[in-house]
Amino acid sequence: ETAVFTPKYATTDPSEVGPVDLLIVFVKYMLLEDALKNAKTMIGKDTIVLSLQNGIGNYDEIAKVVPEEQICCGTTAHGCTFLEPGHVRHTGRGITNVGTLKGPYANAEKVADALRQAGFEAAAHENVMQLIWHKLFANIAINAITALLDQPNASVAENPFEHTLAENMVREAVAVANATGCSFDVEAELKNAFDVAIATGTNRSSMLQDVTRQRETEIRIINGAVVKTGKEAGIPTPYNEVICQLIQALIDWDSMGMKVVGVAHNGEEACEMVRQTQPEINRENRLPAWEAVF
User: Fold this and answer.
1) Which residues are catalytic?
2) Using CA of residue 59, residue 25, residue 122, residue 198, what is the dihedral sign?
3) What's the pTM?
4) What is d(CA 267, CA 74) in angstroms, rounded to the nearest whole number?
5) Which residues on adjacent β-strands are paired with residue 76?
6) What is the four-CA torsion angle of 132, 208, 30, 269, rounded to 10 degrees?
7) pLDDT of 24-55, one tens digit each?
8) Average pLDDT of the chain?
9) Count of beta carbons in the 10 Å neighbourhood of residue 57
10) Which comes out higher in pLDDT, residue 233 or 7?
11) Which residues lie closer than 8 Å to 57 by C-beta, 6 or more apart?
């Protein structure tokens, strides 16, 4: 089914628009700083900025340029694939959840109501971080492993070795989230993460697409967020640390920019990539300190 929507007004120049009532942020974390700079003329004193991005860390970046009382954040089950300018494939639909961290809750209710009036399923939530972590657990289970092994999403549920690694990473993430004030049942979150992997089984994760297209990944705000928050809470996260280092090892940074070293198809290949791209590793082939990567 093809639906054609013709906006009343569209432009690629934010300065032509001026301040808006609601600015929705979907860009990936590594593009967020530039996107906010470009959209600055659209953010007025009454503009609500809604982040529906993956991962944990986007809020802090937005708060550098937008007063926190104007920021909402949340999750959405809608998905799409960019085809060409002006054309996208709508690949998933569902509820959009909105909340605030420091701003008035009335803003979240106002945004959710506006989305419902536009025909979307939406709800306001007082504990929005619970929802953001919940969605993050599935990203943690799927994204990095599929990017390393060049496999579709279902592989993390069907391959016993991938399954074990994904389970260990999610268990670490749940422990960290609960330490921040959330209240997750680890078995329920594991079931949901693997259900998502099966439901999206033939999909290639966004991180795998980034690696394939030689682009920077969002590892820092997915598994990396678990490591960072775990350190702050005093909770060890060795599985998430290692997966972050392996993803970083795929990327060879030099003065000419970024290039993909390769995609590992098994554990031995992944470890060899780390050894080749991290010359400071000692004779026991131990991984370098986390600070050397992040």
Assistant:
1) 135
2) negative
3) 0.79
4) 35
5) 96
6) 110
7) 999 999 999 999 999 999 999 999 999 999 99
8) 86
9) 17
10) 233
11) 29, 220, 221, 225
pLDDT mean over 226-254 = 89
CA–CA distance, 164 with 177 (Å, rounded to integer): 20
Q: Which residue has the tokens 């609960």?
A: 178
Give per-residue pLDDT as tens, 154-202. Answer: 999 999 999 999 999 999 999 999 999 999 999 999 999 999 999 988 8
Tell me: pLDDT of 254 over 70. Answer: no
Angle between the N-to-C axes of helices 186-199 and 128-149, in degrees from 0 to 180, rounded to the nearest 10? 50
CB 188 within 8 A of CB 133: no
3-class secondary structure, 122: strand
Q: Would you state the structure tokens that stand for residue 89, as one six-digit string?
A: 């494939």
Burial class (CB in 10 A: 0-12, 13-18, 19+), 209: middle
- Name the strand (E) or helix (H) holding 23: strand 22-25
57 near 227, Cβ under 8 Å?
no
Output the CA torsion sign for 143, 64, 127, 294: positive
Whole-number pLDDT of residue 284: 40
Assign 97 to helix, strand or coil.
strand
**C-alpha distances in angstroms, 255 versus 2, 25, 121, 212, 252?**
44, 31, 47, 21, 10
